[in-house]
């Protein structure tokens, strides 16, 4: 049963991250998920100091607030003329440092394990269960990630055309009357929500890896956004299942193996892609040279 919950949790994470990752790749903001997963640390620390409890609700509220603040600060710096990567680097390092300072100043008064809170471990998801009306309804992470994935599917499904146009041509979207800034914040809010819902349970390496690698691999396989999203989700699911099997055989980190399998699939896409593949381009050059 533990295997089922671990794989289900990983599939939910990879699916949610893969969908959002496609839009992040197109907007050249792939590292926003990494920034958010680190920048929420002061929110976690403040929530703990305020409530005196490690209850997940308080942690999530604090982390969500700082996740959205991270998005706002990044956007503000970009509006001020800084490049996307510079803005992301400045914001997440500054907020992460603030979180470390808060915890170090109060370390003697609190019992806050950063490895657990920030980096998580997917192997333990089955132990943190949710109880409703006195009945155990399964791991808390499955419910949180399931709801998160449902929200992403609903929002992206309802406003797919708007997200698509904003990703490919923001100027045209604005000319058509689409509120580009609003949809940017909605997308970043979904990324923040996914990161916050995931990192405590599965670890930041899995969240960041699944936000970037499956979408990047799918980007090499097709030029159509709809197909790209489907391919990214399939690659994420395959990485989750294959990574768990690799971890079982090698007795290694589950999250690390899942991201490693995703990396292997990306390399295969890079080599064998019908249009952008290195192998195919080499064969074409050889054929033309003849």
Automatic annotation (TrEMBL):
Keyword Cell membrane: yes
Compartment(s): Cell membrane
Bilayer-crossing regions: 6-26, 31-50, 56-74, 86-105, 141-160, 172-196, 202-221, 228-247, 253-272
Annotated CDD domains: TM_ABC_iron-siderophores_like
UniProt entry keywords in alphabetical sequence: Cell membrane, Membrane, Transmembrane, Transmembrane helix, Transport
Membrane topology: Multi-pass membrane protein
Gene3D superfamilies: ABC transporter involved in vitamin B12 uptake, BtuC
Main location class: membrane
Keyword S-adenosyl-L-methionine: no
Protein family according to the UniProt entry: Belongs to the ABC-3 integral membrane protein family.
Protein name: Manganese transport system membrane protein MntD
Originating species: Paenibacillus silvae
């Amino acid at each position: 049963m533990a295997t089922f919950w671990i794989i289900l949790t990983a599939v939910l994470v990879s699916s949610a991250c893969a969908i959002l990752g496609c839009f992040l790749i197109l907007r050249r903001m792939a590292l926003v998920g990494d920034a958010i997963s680190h920048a929420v640390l002061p929110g976690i620390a403040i929530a703990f100091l305020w409530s005196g409890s490690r209850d997940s609700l308080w942690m999530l509220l604090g982390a969500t607030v700082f996740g959205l603040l991270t998005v706002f600060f990044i956007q503000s710096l970009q509006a001020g003329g800084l490049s996307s990567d510079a803005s992301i680097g400045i914001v997440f390092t500054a907020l992460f440092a603030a979180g470390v300072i808060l915890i170090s100043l109060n370390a003697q008064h609190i019992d806050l394990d950063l490895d657990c809170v920030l980096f998580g471990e997917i192997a333990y998801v089955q132990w943190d269960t949710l109880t409703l009306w006195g009945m155990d309804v399964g791991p808390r992470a499955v419910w949180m990630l399931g709801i998160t994935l449902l929200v992403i599917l609903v929002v992206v499904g309802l406003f797919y055309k708007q997200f698509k146009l904003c990703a490919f041509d923001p100027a045209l979207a604005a000319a058509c009357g689409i509120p580009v800034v609003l949809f940017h914040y909605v997308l970043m809010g979904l990324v923040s929500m996914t990161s916050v819902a995931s990192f405590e349970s599965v670890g930041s390496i899995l969240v960041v890896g699944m936000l970037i690698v499956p979408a990047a691999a799918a980007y090499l396989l097709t030029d159509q956004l709809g197909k790209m999203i489907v391919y990214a989700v399939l690659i994420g699911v395959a990485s989750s299942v294959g990574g768990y099997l690799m971890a079982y055989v090698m007795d290694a980190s589950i999250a690390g193996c899942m991201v490693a399998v995703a990396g292997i699939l990306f390399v295969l896409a890079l080599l064998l892609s019908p249009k952008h593949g290195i192998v195919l381009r080499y064969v074409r050059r050889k054929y033309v040279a003849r």
